[in-house]
Amino acid sequence: MRTHYVSEIGPELAGREVVLAGWVHEVRETSKITFLILRDITGTIQIIGKEGEVGPSIIKALSLPKESVIIIKGKVKASKEAKKGVEIIPDEISNLNPLSSSIPFEVTGKVPAEIDVRLNNRHIDMRRKETLAIFKIESTVLNAFASFFSKKGFMQIRTPSIISEASEGGADLFSVKYFEREAYLAQSPQLYKQLAIIGGFDRVFMITPVFRAEKSNTVYHTTECTQMDIEMGFADHNDAIKHLSSCFTAVLKEVKKRNKGELEVLGLELEVPKVKTVTYSNVIKRLKEKGHLIAHGDDFSKEHEKAIQQEFGNAVIIKDYPTQVRAFYSMPKEKDPKLCNSFDLIYNGFEISSGAQRIHKADLLADAIKNKGLDPSKFEFYINAFRTGAPPHAGWSIGLERFVMCITKSTNIREASLFPRDRKRLTP
User: How many alpha carbons lie under 13 Å from residue 420 in its C-beta half-sphere?
Assistant: First the structure.
């Protein structure tokens, strides 16, 4: 329905006839001139109706309500006053679907709107340049992650979202009625990506939704989020850490390269930090020295993660956690089983990734499940798989929304979730 997007219109097209389609961003009227700003996904451009240049019917047609969806046919005219160096002199204007409902808030951002009002009307909020910028960056992150591992020979797989038992233990599960049985929404694709390695797929990656029934009302959590996962066979935690560091850096470089305009809209200058690797014990020691209340065996709070950023930098991989605070499938260290081959990535003061070398020996895995207070019989299919020739393997996941929240320096993770689900929100 269009010949060009707004971003494709420049001085080189002066005198050419074009057809543009989008939304009415703003309208300004004077006694002799009407200015309409047309917006599409690529930007905005000025449409000008001036007495003597266009007929009265065109000038009248330009006086449309904001957010009307329109098509404009006209000629490109060079203009020193126009922001793009060009403007459009319209010949035809079509209002494709006249508004029959009021717009609940100002899309231009001149009048701020509360986040819940915006999320209640997310289809309108998407028209804000800031919201669009966040999700263009998120698209780059997803594509860069998939491209990185495809080029390294990893297979992309899909795993189920409905499972028969907790994939990571704990009680934060959404139960669903599955015919005559009870089932759960998956907290993680963990067990199934391990089965893919046992099945000989060697190295896999996936992008998948996960569900956490945490009764949390913080700005850091949603009940449904997206994980970007990998798993690699014949590998340990050090191999997985190398891939995490390389992927993290590659994704940020791609965002910096491809999303210059979006970063500018958000007022950001993205830095690609050097990734530093430290042990859990050294982090605890440093935090204690700085006066933080924390003991060996404690997990890190949000305040601790911010302190880790201040002490070690913007990108820190922490490894060798106490076995008791990690998931049951984390491989204990051979020389000190109280520690395990697990790790997290802290970026800009937030944990965005978690991983480990996995237990690949069935009897050791059954003991680890018992030690977490879980029933090994409910994981029988999983444990038995390791009796059929399971290689050493390791992997990790990155939380997409948390990663994008950190890149864009958003203050609420719901900004980075297109249709967020939290403890209170189930629509739209």
Answer: 25
With H, G, I as helix, E, B as strand and everything else as coil, classify residue 239: helix
**Which tens digits make up the pLDDT trace of 136-171?**
999 999 999 999 999 999 999 999 999 987 655 556
Residue owning tokens 């404009």: 72
Side by side, the strands of the sheet bearing 181-185 are: 162-163, 181-185, 175-178
> How far is it, in rounded angstroms, from Cα 67 to Cα 58?
18
**Residue among 325, 321, 334 at smallest CA distance from 364:** 334
The model's pLDDT over 44-64, given as tens digits with 9 standing for 90+, comes to 999 999 999 999 999 999 999
10, 235, 292 from 261: Cα distances, Å:
17, 39, 40
The dihedral over CA atoms of 297, 302, 307, 308, expressed in degrees to the nearest 10, equals 60
Task: Tell me how many helices (H) and strands (E) the chain has.
Answer: 12, 16
Would the pTM of this model clear 0.90, i.e. be above it? yes
Residue 148: the pLDDT is: 98
